[in-house]
Amino acid sequence: MPDNPTADGPPVPTEPHRPRYLFRAPPTPVSFGLIVLLSAVIAALVFGLTPTTFLEGWLLVFAVPALVAAGSTGGFAALLGGRFEFHRGAFLSMTVLLVLLPISAVWRLALFLEPGPTPGVALLAAFLVGPMLWFRHLSLYGVSRPSHLRSLPVSLIQPVLYSVLLFLILPVTVVELVVILLCAVIGFGCAVALLRAADRPLRREFQSSGVSLIRPLLDHVAERDEGATGALEGFFAKFSQPANLRIALLAFFRGGKAHATVALPTVHPGPFAALGSSDLPRKLAAELGAAGGVVLTPHTPCDHDLDLPSGEEVHRLGATAREVLASLGTGLPLRSSPLVQADPTSFARAQLVGDVALVLVSQAPEPTDDIAFSVADRIHREVAAEGGPRVALIDAHNSYVEGRGDITYGTPSAEKLVRDAKAAVRAAVAASRDGPLEAGVGVRDGYDIGRDGIGPQGIRALVLRTAGTTTAYVLIDGNNLLLGRRAPIVKALEAVVDVAEVMTTDNHVVHEVDGGINPVGERMPTAALVQGAMEAVRAALADLGPADARFGSLEVPGVRTLGPGFTARLLTSLGDTLTMFQNMLVATFLLLLTGSLVVVFAFR
After folding, report:
1. What is the pTM of this model?
2. pLDDT mean over 472-482
3. Which of 62, 276, 564, 585 has its CA at 20 to 30 Å from residue 462's CA atom?
4. Domain segments of the chain: what residues?
């Protein structure tokens, strides 16, 4: 249900904690059930279907070691200073069996086609120790603790128990024992080689281990663990640079209290999840508290260079926002305009509120994305030089196509935007007239990032009735709006208001699910988006009442930001890491199989 404001000021929603995952392991009972099933299949391939031999192989050799490892991996890891949850332990044991399944199937096929040269059951069973240890150590080193010394004992639980129980049902000789040891050494060596190779790009570029960040990332995304958040933000902070930023507030007051506040910080809401300035709309609403009324934080013209690396910097921004809000004195002049644009091809539309021009930028229906801060700064300076009103710039961020739509300084699109913004401001001034202002806000919340692609601030609407027209601004808490979704939303809204625009916050908290970018409209049908926007606008229309607008801004000096080029360097390094991992995963697995086969045939 919409969270409508009350006479005492609207509530500021806080984020209910609900785990979100880039990847989710299956429920523990499912993992245990698959362990039993896979153990039976592998035992049938390795030991055949003779009842006694099959049952011994199924239960003793494969099922019991896997089940014991599933139950004890977490506790043993904790004793050695690591962390591996029970459900992950069960999933790991099950996945190890998945790795062994095709190897066993190929061996059975080889035995059927060429029984003479194919190694026997005992040697195959010894051979399987290598892949078992290889996969367990990869997983535990990355997720539990990035220490070979402390991860190896935990990695050995399943292969050691497997080997011991194997001795009970097979006449294992010294030869098979030597093969088991050599295959285990090869498996461990291949795991170490893979981990070192995958870690090299981040170590080279940032002198930090990427593998050591896996566990904090999992804990931050799943649990918002403070220690994990601190570790990740500490990594970002090491490479941050100071910048002088600015925050502007356009607030609408009733009865001496802010009923709604449009917050416009020159901060990008990234880099990811809730790290740094990511999830900025919710964080800034919490920083302003009930004193800010319903807080709307649309995207301002800036990019990842102006991501904040830590919560500490966000608190500095919030403290300045509270200072600005407290300093807002008398209302703006009672003169305003509709939301207008100079011509239909313009990138900009503007509405005059007192002596402030609220300028919205969008290239829709063409792709539109980040606008360089330098372009916005030029617009501010040139409008001021021409004696125009103060400018509050918003990047509507409402027409997404991957890799397209950025506006960078000095490009033809940047030059067009500067011209269009100035023309829109002049058109708004020309269309303005004296008269009272009414404002209303509405909130439609209850959305889920994974299901809907919408962040914790949901859909918020600000409706202004002035100069004989009613204008609706709809703000969706998400990362851009898929190309083609804006038009049907605006068309539907303009059945109940004179002019409408839909924007997104560019909140990077929505990246923490599978699929990464997660633009609005990818997970939610257009009809549902239209319905949500309409509900918010209708609530805002019902909330309309006389208001006075107030505007203020302050500079925040020396704020730490990720700075120019950091995100590009990080993404390049992560891309290199992924490529290296994929290539080395195949290479080390083939090396493991080849090396182990050499050992098996050498001792055959």
Report:
1. 0.84
2. 96
3. 276
4. 28-196, 240-548
